[in-house]
Amino acid sequence: MFRRRRSADASRDWPEESGQEVPGDEIDEEEPARPAGVPRPGGGPWDAEESFPDLERVDLGSLQVPIGPEHEIQLVMAEQHGAWVTVRHQESEVQIQAFAAARRGALWDDVRAEIAAEVQGAGGRSQESEGSFGTELIAQVPAEPGQPASGLRLVRFVGVDGPRWFVRGLFTGPAAERGEPAGLLEEVFRDVVVVRGEHPVPPREILELRLPPEAQQALEQQQAAAEEEEENRFSGDLNPFERGPEFTETR
Question: What are phi and psi of 158, to 5 degrees?
């Protein structure tokens, strides 16, 4: 199942990255080389230019996400935080975002430290741990964002550095504790394909996500039909002494 959801909520499960963005990734040739980071365990997530397992995937622009009968895929559009993909299986979720990165070096070490600092500032706590995707960050964050008194819940941040991109995942629910509940979502995350593109994008900028063409077309047709129906409701001459149209609202 695939659908799009818009979110105006400024409180996200994961903290935003901090730091200044570089004007363009074409200047990376002048930067000194940085450590390449931990190799992608198991081979994925994959770059679109690599050889990767042939699976059925939904094309969401910068991310191609495996489709399966046991999980639901949702594209979330947030007004202040860009877009991300949520993959849900039973009571667990993984939220996935892809970012542009420099030609040399890795982002995850810096991003992990920034997340840990923001978790602490929000009243939570975190620690690094080795997991399925190398060094991960296990954190306890307020159950209600911005409200430490609401209690803490366990989440798990993972990061993977690829060629000129970086993918970040946030596991919530039972999958935050790893083990069997995380198995399917980790498999989906590992089989994601990243389409970086050749156009210049500043490092740390979110790579574009979009609905598949067929889904976008269906959505536009649905919106057009709704607008036409609304127009027809109030068009034409109305006799003020005739019984008017009746509307039923369901909440």
Answer: -125, 155
- CATH number for the domain whose boundaries are 2-10+42-213: 3.40.1000
**pLDDT tens-digit series, residues 103-128:** 877 899 999 999 999 999 999 999 99
Residue that has been written with the tokens 């109030």 in this structure: 234
Contact 92, 177 (CB under 8 A): no
Quick check: 125 and 119 in contact, CB under 8 A? yes
Residue 155 and residue 170 in contact, taking contact as beta carbons nearer than 8 Å: yes
Choose among 135, 137, 161: nearest CA to 44: 161
| Over residues 59-69, mean pLDDT | 96
CA distances from 120 to 111, 117, 124 (A): 14, 5, 5
Residues 140, 138: Cα–Cα separation, whole Å = 7
Are residues 150 and 103 in contact, defined by beta-carbon separation less than 8 angstroms?
A: no
Please list, in sequence order, all residues whose beta carbon lies within 8 angstroms of the beta carbon of residue 19, skipping any fewer than 6 positions away. Answer: 110, 114, 204
**Structural domain boundaries in the chain:** 2-10+42-213
8 A C-beta contact, residue 92 and residue 185: yes
**Average pLDDT for 2-23:** 48
pTM of the entire predicted model: 0.75
